[in-house]
């Protein structure tokens, strides 16, 4: 694989105010980076777009350094090592080629017949987040009612399926009738509630007549308040995503009265605290995906320059499935020569 002399990368043009705009980013043509000692050159093929990136743009993310105007936007990708063609997971950032420490690379491991992009979604960080939320914190039992907001997203889509496989009755909260339809027809939720509907709390009550035993929260403050008002005694709540805070458009306030009334338990979930689950997660969820018992859903975009618009789509909650940018096509497999 011979790289070109130049490539495209996307940098932060200005700090976003509220939901990111496409003009908050800028595409640049630069020379291909030269690997230093201990580094290798990789070609970005599939780029993951993740909500944590929004926090880096204002220096508020828990696990990543702040991004200043002019800096490369961070991101993980399925990539190929230029010298060997090996498929790896790499922190490439939003660029077509990256020089990265060889020690930081991880092989892309997906079951036969499963697309490599699954390593960025259900078999990657979003999947581990969902697995930790369901198996360690929500702990659904057969017959429990589990509600998931952002239910058609990367984490929510996986979490809902895992909870259903554990025997729970799952209820989706999603934005709009189309996403509600996807949640039921493709992700297996028993019911779905459109959070944009004026009577969504009444619809939630109808969908959860015995209350909510477990709730995975990744929506705005109004949704948190509406769901916690339906908590069953001993309910479990997992706070996984706070888009109001991420986009700096408001503050989510925990309704303490509802928590006390239900004698509920509330957990704050940061995936980095649950890395010990990674081997068990990879084995179990990998098997479920390989057997077709856990479905993959992707919100795919073509070309690196589509990343800013795709990221805005993600941060407004318009995506359906894991947000992926196909930066480059996968090379066709080599045909074996007949003897």
UniProtKB/TrEMBL annotation:
Which SMART domains does the record match to this protein?
A: PKS_ER
Q: What's one GO MF term for it?
A: oxidoreductase activity, acting on the CH-CH group of donors, NAD or NADP as acceptor
Q: Which Pfam family is an annotated match for this chain, by its short name?
A: ADH_N_2
Q: Which InterPro entries match?
A: ADH-like_C (IPR013149), ADH_N_2 (IPR041694), ER (IPR020843), GroES-like_sf (IPR011032), MDR_fam (IPR045010), NAD(P)-bd_dom_sf (IPR036291)
Q: What UniProt keywords are attached to this protein's entry?
A: Oxidoreductase
- Residue ranges annotated for the Enoyl reductase (ER) domain, each copy included: 18-325
Q: Which domain of life is it from?
A: Bacteria
**Does the record's keyword annotation contain DNA repair?**
no
**PANTHER family xref list:** PROSTAGLANDIN REDUCTASE, PROSTAGLANDIN REDUCTASE 1
Descriptive protein name: NADPH-dependent curcumin reductase CurA
Protein source organism: Sphaerisporangium siamense
């Amino acid at each position: 694989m011979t790289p070109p002399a130049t490539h495209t990368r996307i940098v932060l043009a200005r700090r976003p105010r509220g939901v990111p705009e496409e003009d908050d980013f800028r595409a640049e043509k630069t020379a291909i980076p030269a690997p230093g000692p201990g580094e290798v050159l990789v070609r970005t093929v599939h780029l993951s777009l993740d909500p944590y990136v929004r926090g880096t743009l204002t220096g508020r993310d828990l696990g990543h350094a702040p991004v200043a105007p002019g800096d490369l936007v961070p991101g993980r990708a399925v990539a190929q090592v230029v010298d060997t063609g090996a498929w790896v997971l790499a922190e490439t950032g939003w660029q077509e080629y990256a020089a990265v420490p060889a020690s930081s690379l991880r092989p892309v491991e997906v079951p036969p017949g499963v697309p490599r992009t699954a390593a960025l979604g259900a078999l990657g960080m979003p999947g581990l987040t969902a697995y930790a939320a369901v198996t360690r914190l929500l702990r659904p039992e057969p017959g429990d009612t589990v509600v998931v907001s952002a239910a058609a997203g990367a984490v929510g889509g996986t979490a809902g399926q895992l909870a259903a496989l554990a025997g729970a009755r799952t209820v989706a909260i999603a934005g709009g009738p189309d996403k509600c339809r996807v949640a039921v027809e493709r992700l297996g939720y028993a019911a779905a509630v459109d959070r944009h509907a004026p009577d969504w709390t009444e619809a939630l009550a109808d969908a959860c007549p015995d209350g909510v035993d477990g709730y995975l929260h990744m929506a705005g403050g109004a949704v948190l308040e509406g769901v916690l008002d339906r908590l069953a005694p001993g309910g479990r709540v997992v706070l996984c995503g706070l888009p109001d805070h991420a986009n700096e458009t408001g503050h989510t306030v925990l309704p303490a009265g509802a928590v006390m009334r239900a004698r509920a338990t509330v957990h704050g979930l940061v995936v980095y605290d649950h890395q010990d689950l990674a081997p068990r997660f990879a084995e179990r969820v990998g098997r479920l995906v390989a057997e077709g018992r856990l479905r993959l859903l992707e919100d795919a975009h073509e070309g690196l320059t589509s990343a800013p618009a795709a990221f805005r789509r993600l941060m407004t909650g318009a995506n359906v499935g894991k947000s992926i940018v196909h930066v480059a096509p996968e090379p066709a497999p080599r045909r074996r020569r007949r003897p």
